[in-house]
UniProtKB/TrEMBL annotation:
The keyword Transmembrane helix applies. Gene3D superfamilies: Galactose-binding domain-like (2.60.120.260). Residues 341-386 have a biased composition (Low complexity). This is LPXTG cell wall anchor domain-containing protein. Residues 1-28 form the signal peptide. The lineage of its organism: Bacteria, Bacillati, Actinomycetota, Actinomycetes, Streptosporangiales. Residues 317-386 are annotated as: Disordered. Keywords: Membrane, Signal, Transmembrane, Transmembrane helix. The chain crosses the membrane at residues 418-440. Residues 331-340 have a biased composition (Pro residues).
């Protein structure tokens, strides 16, 4: 390989390394804010549930970058949020975290996390969202102060139809009942077992959360009539000796003897009672929950910081929002007449707050626009006339999960010096290579001519 080619390769490598160094952003400073919460009400049960949240906050950002906050939540202590009843898989726990903002932007930001649950029984511990996150697009330099506020935890039950067997812990009996764990296969009892009593007035029941239920028992000859009471309504009655209004001679297990499907969502208690001195059977209860769009408020738990929370400051430095790819910074002529200096700024109607869509643009005078992940970055429109509304409440996308991005720090001013040093070195390498080539050619001439 010729010396000239080696010199050119060295220069190319040096220039590429310089470019890569300049285009690599430095990591932004960040701060982990630890907040302890005490949660009461709703699915917290009768005693407080304690949580710890770790909020990762970048402390130095540039205009044009995104403010990304991430929450990591964990239980502390031994108490947990508990399931309010029996449900199929698919229930959701959701938690909303609130951050109060002052300084360059006044308002609040909310972050949402959700966690899908497996099949649930009454009082079973619930899983909580592992992380909450949101992203806000920064449009003006300044200092923003953040302070965590309350959290709320909600529970959204799925559309559900779940059978609770007669031997489940949630089914209660008086002392007159006996359990047969291995019934004959031809009876078809649910779970292959059944509870039986021959005492008049024998009672059994269940407390559940939902919108309906079915009493499952046996249809057969010589059994007692059964009164079914729902909460305070004792009007239900069924005679298991009858099938289609006529006496039966067969024994059939796992039969829906009585049901009610019009209950309002909430907690209900069902009791069955023997009306005769004859056998009564309880095989199971089938519990129903209708589909819901919003989480019922009776399950909402409010989490309050256990002590005063720290304030974290974020410094947003000046920077280019969207530099032109061609380097042309010429501003196109306005397509609308310039505003007149009437002394009246462009005002948003009193008492209203504009609500942006995923690609909406906020005014840029002291505001922070919010961009859901995966959507396009909004175009910032500057106006010669400031808007009258100084602050706008943020709108934040739901993000069930994900890591924390801390943004980018401002470019280091020393990069310019580093570039000059590397380019100077590259020129020196190229000069040395060229000088060596000329000296080699001169020696070759003395020896009998140029070698080509």
């Amino acid at each position: 390989m010729s010396r000239l080619r080696k010199a050119l390769i060295a220069v190319s490598v040096g220039m590429a390394a310089s470019a890569a160094f300049i285009m690599t952003p430095a990591d932004a400073d960040s701060f982990n804010l630890v907040v302890n919460y005490s949660c009461t009400g709703g699915i917290a049960g009768t005693q407080p549930v304690t949580l710890q949240a770790r909020v990762n906050v970048p402390t130095v950002l540039q205009v044009g970058s995104s403010l990304n906050l991430g929450w990591k939540l964990d239980y502390t202590g031994t108490r947990r949020f508990i399931s309010p009843g029996y449900f199929e898989a698919g229930a959701l726990t959701s938690m909303v975290g609130s951050i109060k903002l002052t300084g360059a932007w006044s308002g609040s930001l909310e972050a949402l996390g959700t966690k899908e649950q497996v099949g649930l029984a009454s009082t079973v511990p619930l899983e909580i969202p592992e992380a909450l996150s949101y992203s806000a697009h920064l449009t003006k330099a300044g200092v923003i102060k953040l302070r965590p506020q309350n959290l709320t935890m909600d529970f959204l039950p799925p559309k559900s139809e779940i059978t609770v067997n007669d031997d489940a812990a949630g089914v209660k009996y008086d002392d007159s009942w006996m359990h047969d764990p291995n019934t004959r296969d031809e009876y078809g009892d649910h779970g292959g077992d059944v509870h039986t009593s021959t005492t008049k007035g024998a009672k059994a029941g269940i407390t559940f959360t939902g919108t309906g239920f079915e009493y499952i028992g046996r249809r057969m000859p010589d059994v007692s009539r059964v009164r079914v009471t729902v909460d305070e309504d004792a009007s239900g009655e069924v005679d298991p000796k009858l099938k289609d209004g006529k006496p039966t001679n067969a024994t059939e297990g796992n039969i829906s003897l009585w049901k009610r499907m019009d209950l309002p969502y909430g907690e209900h208690t069902v009791t069955i009672e023997s009306l005769d001195a004859a056998p009564i059977h309880l095989d199971a209860f089938k519990l129903h929950t209708k589909a819901m769009v919003e989480a019922p408020t009776l399950h909402t738990s409010t989490c309050v910081p256990s002590s005063d929370t720290d304030i974290v400051e974020i410094t947003v430095k000046d920077g280019s929002l969207s530099p032109s790819p061609t380097g042309d910074q010429t501003t196109p002529p306005p397509t609308t007449p310039p505003p007149t200096n009437s002394g009246s700024p462009t005002a948003i109607p009193t008492g209203t707050t504009p609500t942006p869509g995923p690609q909406s643009t906020w005014p840029t005078d002291g505001l922070v626009s919010v961009v859901p992940r995966g959507s396009s970055t909004p175009t910032t429109t500057r106006s010669a006339t400031p808007t009258a509304t100084k602050y706008v409440r943020a709108q934040v996308a739901k993000i069930p999960k994900g890591g924390v991005e801390t943004g980018e720090a401002p470019d280091d001013p020393s990069n310019a010096g580093a570039l000059g040093l590397i380019l100077s070195g590259s020129v020196m390498i190229a000069g040395s290579a060229t000088g060596g080539l000329l000296l080699w050619r001169r020696r070759a001439a003395h020896a009998g001519g140029d070698k080509r």
